[in-house]
Design a protein that fits this description.
Blueprint lengths: L1 H22 L25 E3 L18 H10 L8 E5 L2 E4 L3 E3 L11 E5 L5 E4 L1 E4 L5 E2 L2 H5 L3 H6 L1 E4 L7 H4 L26 E3 L2 E2 L1 E2 L1 E2 L6 E2 L3 E3 L26 E3 L2 H8 L8 E4 L8 E9 L4 E4 L12 E5 L10 E5 L4 E5 L9 E4 L6 E4 L4 E4 L2 E3 L6 E4 L4 E3 L2 E5 L4 E4 L4 E3 L2 E5 L4 E7 L4 E2 L3 E3 L2 E3 L12 E6 L2 E3 L2 E3 L6 E6 L2 E3 L2 E3 L9 E6 L7 E4 L2 E3 L9 E6 L5 E4 L2 E12 L6 E3 L2 E11 L2 H8 L8 H6 L7 H6 L26 E3 L2 E4 L5 E3 L1 H6 L1 E3 L2 E4 L6 E3 L4 E4 L5 H4 L15
Parallel strand pairs: 1-2, 2-5, 3-6, 4-24, 5-25, 6-26, 12-21, 24-27, 25-28, 26-29, 27-30, 28-31, 29-32, 30-33, 31-35, 32-36, 33-37, 35-38, 36-39, 37-40, 38-41, 39-42, 40-43, 41-44, 42-45, 43-46, 44-47, 45-48, 46-48, 47-49, 48-50, 49-51, 50-52, 50-53, 51-54, 52-55
Antiparallel strand pairs: 7-23, 8-9, 9-22, 10-11, 10-23, 13-20, 14-20, 15-16, 16-19, 17-18, 17-20, 18-19, 21-22, 33-34, 56-57
Amino acid sequence: MLNLIKSIVSVILSLVAFFVCVFSPPTFVCPYNLSTSEETPIKITTGDFYVSPDGSNNNDGSFSSPFATIERARDAVRELDKTGRSGITVSIMAGEYRVSSIEFTSRDRATQACPVTYCAYGNGEVIINGGVTLKSEDFEPVSGKMKSRLSKDARKNVVELDLGKYSLTCADWGKIYAIGSFNTADKYDGDTTGPIYCELFFNDERMALARYPNSGEFLKTGKIIREGDAREKTGVSGATPGWDELRNPLGDIFTADWKTACRMSKYETLEDVWLFGYWKYTWADSSTPIKSFDAKKRAIETEYVSICGIKKDAPYYIFNAFEELDEPGEWYLDRGTGILYMYPAEDLEGSCTQLSLSTDNIIKVTNAHYLNFRNLTVKGTRSNAIEIMGNNNTVDSCVIKNVSGNALIMNGYKNKAVNNEIMHTGRGGIILEGGDRDTLTPGGCIADNNLIHDWSEVYLTYQSAVNLLGAGNVCSHNEIFNSPHQAITYTGNNHMIEYNVIHDVVRLSDDAGAIYAGRNWSMYGNIIRYNCIYNLGSKEHHPQGIYMDDALSGQTIFGNILINIPDNAIEIGGGRDIIIKNNIIINAGRPFYYDERARDGALKGGWFGHCTDLWSHLNTFPWQGDIWKAAYPNLSKIHLNTDNSESIWFAPNPANGFISGNIILDKDKELGRVEDSVFTFSTIEGNAIYYRRKKGIFVNPEKGDYNIKEGSEVYEIIPDFENLPFEQMGRY
């Protein structure tokens, strides 16, 4: 009997192993050798002026008699006779420089012949900090009445500090204003909008305002008792009439689950307790104060309405509730008394705790050119870290972290953001704007060889690692990872997005893509090539890889590799003149999704009936002028004549597209979902499609080598397939 049982067990285990092998997805290895952030020794740079934390602004700025502040060195550069000079260097010695903002204006303009550089001197970190470092010895165990409001475990671990010891007042730390890319605070009268609240960082990690549930978890809305005065109300097509002019719209009411209601009923006060959520869509985040709470009905009323409306089972959490200070990494500030409470993530001794304070840009350049900032660490602002308006400026090998806004904004021509590391921002990474779209004059701005990770930590949607605007700018060789939403976005013409490695992004959203642009007929000429995109989304969320949304047209997607994309590897939302060629797609929910939403909306009254609004936007550009006609001949021929809707030139048709020469390894051995009209108006042919377990295609996929094997059958279908330049992808 025992042997029989063993035999049966053995058969069962064999069957289990067989089904796991057949039906579980294979493991695909990234073709890119991930970089690590390594400290590179800084060359000692001979300066014309020197700055040291031990210096004095009464000194002459020499090596032996340095200035104390960067601002004093800036003023000295202004006064210097630049005749015959090939450049001016301000060498900044290691240490921390506490500032609110350092401003450069037209008085600081340099020239191509004589650029001005502000850089670190020798080894050691030069920290330009808009916040304040809180001494570990100033923290004491939590005490008094506030202690009794905490859980037993928290009472043992929470510490407190009186910010008055640092001569700080409520004017320094400010109040809490709404966060989230879709918040509606500006619809309400009174003091409802302002900078992001001050933030606390412990060992360079952003701490969470005391919240429930704890970080990474969400509650779900229960029954919707009242849908407020939303712009997009349930059952209403388009925007609610009169919403743009509406003031103080009625908020929402929904029920909390039983456990949450019990916790809330024990809060001593609901004053300044907030909710953050994705109230309707996972691409629309917003926050609101709690207006009221009915414990018997478990009903929560919001002060601010959700702009998109509200639905049952929408994810949300409670924050800035003192009683929820119960986990390492959380904090709370009593804004009336100035007492800061913290649950340290590690031992305080030897740790660094910093409070962001400045509400301005740490480095602000206005109408100045040929300025270089190199090897600096910039942090501690509740605004954007560096904002530059001018031409031929460079931010090189800097570390930008622990800021509430964006890391770096550059607006002008031939600006460069290169070799930087960006992390722990509340909003985005790099925003580059340059060029003239009317004349298609390229901006020549470059975001190259940057490491960007852990951004969009406060505003959780539509905050990109890199955002290109204008015409003719470049995003290249960047490594980008760990974000709740998209990685690269763009608006404009003739941008180049190439050789980037993107992974572990769009972790908290579904209808979104790692590379995203959309809803535009004017944005022709952009090229997305030679990017490696892999491992997107999360268990709960299934985003796209490359997402050309809502009739975006005139794009080229060439030579990219996309691996482990939960939904569509490449989604085309009904656009035209889209070229998709020579890409490798492995293990996607669907390799391609190409619909007819614009045609359906224009001719059948589908949800995208307002696609014709894109025509009005197109008419703001000289698309029928000689320059645009020469650049985009197909664009100049489109029309909106519904009497000729079967023409390839009817604008809403998914026409003149070309999907060919792509290699696909798919669980179902399918191209994906492509509407019949796409086959009618565009060309879909010559794609090599295999089951995802197909062997013999690549040289060594188990070790990340996705070059095509010599003599592979792929060449029978795609004789001109070009191996991708894997060795050039990512940082160098």
